[in-house]
Amino acid sequence: MAGIKQFNEDEALERAMHVFWRQGYGATSMPDLAKATGVQRGSLYHAYGDKQSIFLLAFARYQRHYLDMVRERMQLADPESALRAYFAYVINSMSEPVPQLDDTPSSRTRGCLTTKIATDETAMDEPVRNALRGMLEGLGEVLEARLSQPDARERLTLSPQDAARLLVTFTRGNVVMERIYHGPQQLQATADSMIQILFKRC
Fold this sequence. Notes:
Keywords: DNA-binding, Transcription, Transcription regulation. This is TetR family transcriptional regulator. By secondary structure, this protein is mostly helical. It has helices at about 10-25, 30-35, 40-50, 50-75, 80-95, 115-120, 125-145, 150-155, 160-180, 185-200. The chain is about 70% helix and about 0% strand.
């Protein structure tokens, strides 16, 4: 692809990600991506091949950033504080307004990109499914690594692996609740209840 791309790839993938986030996978077309990125459709085809390839690159970029943010929060000294910070990040992320092409404010929250694609039947080709699995498994590994540390392990009511799996699944459920109620405070309160369940009390 050397000599073909005449655009800022990082910026183009960021804009493409927001189109998928706003419209879903099936409703997004190559003309939509061309308009959002400001890159001619032919140049997108030459650079990436097709819509799925663009999505996979945009999603991989999103995944790296998301997991980096979770790792940052897992560095907090207290495991319960780390999980609260993790949930606060997740809730804040999905409660942000949907990015618009013209930068006008939106009353809609953007929800969770991973869950939005996972519930889109038109997106369920194996490469996309593998990307989604990689995201959820990567999140589980980050959480399990923190919960495996002695200060957390000795207080958990479950094994670190089971606790991490439960947290990933619980987060997906919280995404659905956000879609219905749009209540960050309620979501955080429910997350706090989950944390209380996971840790033994003196």
